[in-house]
Amino acid sequence: MNALRTSGWALAGGVVLILTAAAAADPAPVAPAGPLPPGRSSAAVVTVAPPAAAGAPDRTPAVPRPTKSDAAKALRNVRDLSALNPCNGAPKPAWCK
Amino acid sequence: MATLKEWTNTIATWTTIAGAVVGGTMAIYQYIENSTSARVKETLDYLDRFYSPPESTALSSIVDYWVPRADELAARKHAGDAALSVYVVEQFQTGGLADDTTVIASFFDRLHACTCARLCDQGIVKRFFAAPAYDFLGLAYPFIADQRKRDPQFGDSIERLARAQADDARFGQIYCAPAAAAGAPSP
After folding, report:
1. How far apart (Å, rounded) are the C-alpha atoms in residues B130 and B115?
2. pTM for this prediction
């Protein structure tokens, strides 16, 4: 009887642990920032997308990949920006320190 | 017979406890793994955004404007901070680069919010965005400082990232510190 009670408590503990982990994965409701649209009396509750569940389809709209020329140009810009930066090489302006 | 029953009960109890612990641990592990992969994906999406319009075209406008002026920029740099500041502010204004600078500043504000809300991966942010932030701040700082007369927070996220990248150990602390703790803006 005693063992049955202990095993019941252990099972309940396990269920609570799993439910806690599941609750942590649930999205937290947040109010949208900024003024309300006309005609709305209260901010609609929106949710932050939770981490994708294993095997679940990704519901986040995909960010379009940059084209090859966009990416190449952006990488060139980053390199040119480094060459233009007055903080690279002496004397360094005060704002670099 | 009583002994066998006792043993069975004990084994059942410990099996249940072990099952509960393993199940719970697996659930937590799964959650952490999913969170990490979601953070990495989100950060890489930011990288794609940085390489795509309007961010890429804004940076392009700034760089394309400054490349032919690199010699003059170097000359002003050797003439002293005051001369360099005046020249940089003047060129950003006459070159019509204010909007482009705002686009870049806004991008870094969003990246900062994402990272400090732990929705983006700090390591990847440092790896891919710290150097461009440092270089952008180095070039545009006088103009950013000038814009702060109207908007004290202008370019704050770029400056935080640029300054945080110099200190590996305290990167997160510096980048995500509350505004008051981040220190006074540089001259």
Report:
1. 13
2. 0.71
